[in-house]
């Protein structure tokens, strides 16, 4: 989607799957030179501390590659769990839904800089 | 066993019931306002039926026997419902003890010529009925506690209304002390409302919170972080001077949270975040 990558997580992530996601995503950002990553976790109902850490890691890694990460559509239960685990995901941008997340990324991106890569990455 | 009181009770079931009802009707603990005569009769009949059906010559001196479970269940149900209906403990106690009196009267009628057996059987019945009485009280108190618990929950629910003050702006006035369980309720209802309405800004008004200590502040910060995770901004408003003092004295860092003194200024800030402008209309100006 324009200069952004959209990742929709459809299932509950297990450790190995999450690690794969991390690697794939960073590679993809590098390959496409994407400026923003949108992670849609609206279908995720269970998180653990590892998953929270992976999200934080992805944000830090993409930042190094000059891309912002926005996590969108977090469920209330998930948010409460992460807070109770002491993970406030500082450094990760959040938005209510994909649309707002996209707007947030757009506002962060330099308006005159346009990249023509179309990417859509779905994790099954 | 020379004489079976169990048999006596079973065969004189109807008589016992009548005597008991008479005692109840005569007693000052009768509450016609709380329970109709028919209900009382049905309730008493059930208890007498159950008691006479399970009682035998063997288990009468063994109160712990599982045979009485059924009676206990009936008793629990009765005293639970009485607790909910607002009977006083005295009235509920008298209800059970009047049954004891009825049984004694029955015994006296039938064993008037044999004082020794009368005494022995009375003791047995006494022990049994005392334990029934204790069960009744236990469940009665439990019933009352349930009522209190339910009210506490209701208060907690009532006191955390999430109000949509504007399109995309939610307000949550918190009244009363914030403890862990309330924070949980507050957080859940706020986050759910954010999802339901798709609001981007939440205002947490704490003007109704009497005191803020480090724990309360911790809870507030948690709530703010959780809303941030959901992708919404959170403003804390209604901070009174005393609260500002305590917060600083306790060394609580609220610097990365937007705080406003009043709900009005928080709303103003929310408007400016949403690039909304409130204007007095031209027409109104002319009137003024």
TrEMBL record, chain B:
Pfam families: RsbRD_N, STAS
Keywords: Phosphoprotein
Classification via SUPFAM superfamilies: SpoIIaa-like
Residue ranges constituting the STAS domain according to the UniProt record: 159-270
Entries under PANTHER family matching the protein: RSBT ANTAGONIST PROTEIN RSBS-RELATED (PTHR33745), RSBT CO-ANTAGONIST PROTEIN RSBRC (PTHR33745:SF3)
Protein name: STAS domain-containing protein
Organism per entry: Spirosoma terrae
